[in-house]
Every structure is written in structure tokens, then in C-alpha cells.
Amino acid sequence: MSFPAAARVSLADAQLRRNLGKATSLIREKRLRAVAEVPDWEALRAAGEAIKASAMARLPEVLEQLEQSVTAAGGVVHWARDGAEANAIVAGIARANGTDEVIKVKSLATDEIGLNEALERDGIRAIETDLAELIVQLAGDRQSHILVPAIHKNRAEIRALFERTIASGESLGDGAAAIAEAARRHLRAKFLSVPVAVSGANFGVAETGTVVVVESEGNGRMCVTLPRVLVTVMGIEKVLPAWRDLEVFLQLLPRSSTAERMNPYTSLWTGVTAGDGPREFHLVLLDNGRTRVLADEVGRAALHCIRCSACLNVCPVYERVGGQAYESVYPGPIGAILTPQLRGLDAAPSLPWASTLCGACYEVCPVKIDIPSILIHLRGRVVREQKSALSPEALAMKAMAAAFGSRRRYEAAQRLARLGRGPLAKAALPGWTAMRDLPEPPKETFREWWKRRQG
Amino acid sequence: MSGGSAAKADILAAVRAALGPAPAVPGVPRDYRVAGTLQPDVELFAERVAEYRASVHRVSAAELPAKLAELARGRTGIPPGSGYDGVEDHAMTVGELDALDTVITGCALAIADTGTIVLDGGAASGRRALTLVPDHHICIVHADQIVASVPDAIATLDPHTPLTFVSGPSATSDIELDRVEGVHGPRELDVVIVG
Questions:
Q1: Are A445 and A407 spatial neighbours (Cβ–Cβ below 8 Å)?
Q2: Side-chain half-sphere CA neighbours of A8 within 13 A
Q3: How many domains does chain A have?
Q4: Rg from Cα positions in chain A
Q5: In this structure, what CATH number is given to the domain that contains residue B186?
Q6: Which site in A159, A166, B9, B161 is 20 to 30 Å from A44, CA atoms measured?
Q7: Min CA distance, B17 vs chain A (Å)?
Q8: Cβ contact (<8 Å) for B164 and A267?
């Protein structure tokens, strides 16, 4: 479904718009406070932008360094050209460890490649352990926000869902704490027994081979600590050159995403450690369209994204249509520039128009991605590369060229315009006249007046 | 693994083709407050930990044993050789860890600016599972372990140890984007500042 069609569905859902409006306005205020108390915020943003740009410019070198560092620390590195290859690698590791269940930490990369569905086809069940992902999984729903995938559901809806599923026969009451408690009881046995976990990565440090997962609930700690085997699927754009670079991103990310000074838990591990945590660590480096994004000199800055979701929370379009209208796991302004580039412009040609170009996303982006400029650039590319020659605009231009080509046709067209305005023009130009008035053609053109005076 | 190395070669070739022959590498301006800029502030640390709804206690070295006895409840786990009152973790099974009510550990360092404690899997912190499975964590922070900022912490920590940054008890923002304490990690966090 295209963005305009999907947006129409979301806009008709008043409950969804209320839930989104409440959550995003709350987080906007909190983020402003969290950022205002950091006097060097702009300097951190500038550093974050430059670190990412420098990592992308040196990507072959830093990726090979990352592979060497992880291998030296006892990990195994795999490379996957696309989602199917990455899914096959993860399934192979699960099978080699004789398990038909894996526990998962919330990861956009694995959502992007449909890992859960691929594992299921191989007879392996992927258990989402993040509360919001669990809500989405139990409801058979889709994610609607990068950080809070179930933001479109309010507390009462989540409570009702849990009372139908993992806490059936219980009454959870109105408190959010009881909902969290139900999730804790439901997943605890899995954490303590499932031998293979799958995670994403917020950052991977080339210099040291350190992988970083930033989270809140402790499900991430459980997954990266307790199972015998840990598999991390990481997009190649998540690599940072130096250990020191973390001092920038561990300040930028929490304040931009949950608007906290620091998120409850951040786990950093380097390969395997004897007597502490998994005995096997696999890092799957994923391309899946990222090198295609890199080839666009303007659009490649979309790869700098650290998935904080600040741009979603300030976007007037996102606030009204919600995340599910964006046709991908990457919603909001960042999704509007990332999805068409990852999948190809022909796969999501309407997304670069899912914006008012108000610029709020650029102002809050912790790595200064100029989303409005990239949107305009992609609109140009869609028009040049993708738009069918049969679009109303292209047809109108062709007709104009024909009319201006001869005096007889031009004068005939002017007469026709007077007759054809109204229902006829509206039927011919549906997109154009929905939002605009068609100007009234004059009763008499200059040429007609001149002829009459002479005659 | 010939399939794997072919994938690597293809991806790196695609990256090189995308970047062109001589991509410009920008320098990184580090005009932010780097390590050593700020002075550590014990008061600020105590205040910011408390804002996460962790309980903060300040004691002298002499008062520490009595404070630990007061806070610990039920079966208590401790890192081997730490000398606190409890059962030493000599590769306990997850079942044994799950049977603990409380765990008492030290830490690698703490960050005043963000109210964060950092565990590094060393002798003071214990291995990661020990501070994860029990529902109640008592963490001892010596005042001289507090650094000012995140850059100070990154400059001090060893990346080759398994690190956990802990800022308050387990929480979630998944229900209406509001922080609610208590999901999978320890739901109760006592931070005892010594000195």
C-alpha cells in the first residue's frame, strides 16, 4: 500500500491519533529538558555527525578492522549480502546448537530482514523479549515507532491484550507496573533456559571489536549474558572507528530517544569472556541495500542514523498518521528517506512526499542528518527516474508543448479552457484540484480582444 | 566458508564502488567537554541516582557492614573473595542465582553527570549474571570511584572486559512512553556511597 493510501487508514482511527498525540507530546517536552541541561550539546552533535561521516568514508577499512578485532577476541564474523543470507546464517547457528527456540532483543535490523518469519519457516520459534515487541507479537500487529513499537496502543488496550494472552484468567488492574510484572513472569523461564539469543547492535567499535546494546528493561542484559550462544545482526553502517567515539554517542542517544540522562542498561562486550556470559559469539554484518544508499552522495547521510526516534516524535505528519503508514520498520522522517533508498525508489516512490518539510526533524537529529534536503533530493530522483510518462503532470506538459507549438492550436486551447473548466478539468486533474482552485480563465483573451478591435 | 568470503568480497567491492576512488574523510571536531574537563561531584552523583528511583545511602567505611546487614534480605550472593556477608558465587547455575534474594557487589566506577554505575565483570563487580538474575542489587560505590562524565568513564574503562552501565533499576518506557520501574533486571537498586 502506498503512503497516501495507508495514511488514510490510520487517519480514520481516532484512538490511534489520541494515543500518538499523547505519547509524542510528552516525550517532546522531556527531550527538550534533557537536552537543555547539556551545555555542549551542539558540539556533541557536530562530533557525532563527523564521526559517522568519517566512518562511512573509510567503511571498507573500518569493517575489516572490526572483523579482525572481533575475531581476535574470540568471536566469529559472518557477512550477509541480503536478508535471506543473514536469516540463513542465524538459522544455521540455531540448528547447530540443537534448539527450536531463540530469545530476541528488540532489533530493527532483524525486523527489516523478516528474521522471525524466516526462522519460523525453518521450524525455529523467535521469542521477542522487549515489552513493546512482545505486545506487537501477541497482538499479531506491526510496529509503529522505532523506540516504542507499540506506541499506538494505550495502557488499557495492552492490559486487555495481556489478560487475553499471557495473563489469562488474571485481572491486572490499571497500573502499568502490573503489566510489566506480567511480562516479567511470562519471559523469566525462557531467559533462564533458551540456549541461543539474537540481538541487534547500536554500535560496533572497529578499534576494539566491542558491540553495544542500549536498552531499558534488562531483557537485553538477559539475552547477551545468559544463553550459551549469542548472535548479533548488525547493519554495516553501525560501525564506529574508535572506542573513544562511544563517549559522544552514549551522551547523544539516551537524551534523544527516551529523553533520559542515561537509559537504565547499556551492555558492552568484546568477543567472549571466559566464565562470564556466552561461550560463543557470532557477529553478522548485513548489507541489504546499505551499499546502494551509500552510492547516493546526498542520500547517504541517512546511514548516519542512530535510531533514536527523536525525528518521529517532533514530526507533524508522523503524529497524525502513525508509524504503520510508512510501509516499513523505519517510520517517520528517517523512514521517509531510508526506506526508498534501502529498497529502491521504485519500491516506495511516495515516501519522500510524506513530509511538510517543516525542518523540525533536522533540528532534533543528534547526528544532524539534513532530512528535509534529502527528501527534496529524493523527490527529484523519483520524478527523474521513476515517474511514469502517463502521470497527469507529464501528460499536461506534453499537451502544453503541443498547444504552444502552433498558433491555431494555442487559440483553440484557450477557447477550450473556458468551456472545459469545472467538472471536466476536475476529472482530468484529480490530484491537482483537490487542494487548489483552478484559476478562472478570462472571458476574452488578449488575442480575441485585439481581433475584435481590428475587425 | 567460501560462500561467506564471497559475500565479504562482494560487500566490500560494493562499498568501494559506492564511495568512488578518493572519498573525503572529514576530521572530527571534539569541542565538547572531553575527559578531564569537569571535576567529579559526589553530591551530584547521589542526586542523579536518586532521580532514577534507586535508593541512595551515604556511609563511612566503618558504617558499611551495618548498612549492608540492614539492606540485605534473605539469601544473599556476593562475588568470590569480596568479604561481604553472603554466599560466594563460584559459577552458580542460573537456578541457584534465581534462588538468591539479594546480591551485594562493588563496581568499576560511577558517573556523576548521569547517575550511572559501571560494572566490569572484575573482582569487585562479579560476573554479569550475578548482578542480573537476583531481584535486589546492593551496589557499593567508593567516593573516589566517581568520575565526572561519560568521556571520563570511557577514558578509564577497559573495552576488553564485559561492561554494564546501570542507571537506576530496570524500567520500561513502552507503555505510553512513561518510565515504569521493574521489568526483567533487578527491580530494586540500593546504591551505597562510602566516604
A1: no
A2: 4
A3: 3
A4: 26
A5: 3.40.50.10420
A6: B161
A7: 8
A8: yes
Tell me, what's the pLDDT at B1? 46
Q: Is residue A400 a part of any domain in this protein?
A: no
- State how far the Cα of A78 lies from the Cα of B12, in Å rounded to an integer: 13
At residue B55, the 3 state secondary structure works out as strand
Distance between CA atoms of A133 and A213, rounded to whole angstroms? 16
Angle, CA of A434, A439 and A442, to the nearest 5°: 155
Give the strand pairing for A101-104 and A196-199.
Answer: parallel
- Do the chains contact at A57 and B132, CB–CB below 8 Å? no
- Please give the helix or strand (H or E) that residue B58 lies within, else none: strand B55-59
Confidence of residue A313 (pLDDT cuts 50, 70, 90): very high
Asked if residues A239 and A304 have their Cβ atoms less than 8 Å apart, the reply is: no
Of A73, A217, A226, the CB nearest to B94: A226
Contacts of B30 in chain A (CB under 8 A): 43, 47
pLDDT tier, A39 (very low <50, low <70, confident <90, very high otherwise): very high
pTM above 0.95, yes or no: no
Single out the residue in A257, A288, A319 at which a domain terminates.
A288
Of B179, B141, B94, the C-alpha closest to A254 is: B179
For A335-391, what is each residue's pLDDT tens digit? 999 999 999 999 999 999 999 999 999 999 999 999 999 999 999 999 998 765 556
Q: What is the pLDDT of residues B50-104, one digit of tens each?
A: 999 899 999 999 999 999 999 999 999 999 999 999 999 999 999 999 999 999 9
Which amino acid would we find at residue A129?
A: T
Looking at the predicted structure, is the pLDDT value of residue A433 above 70? no
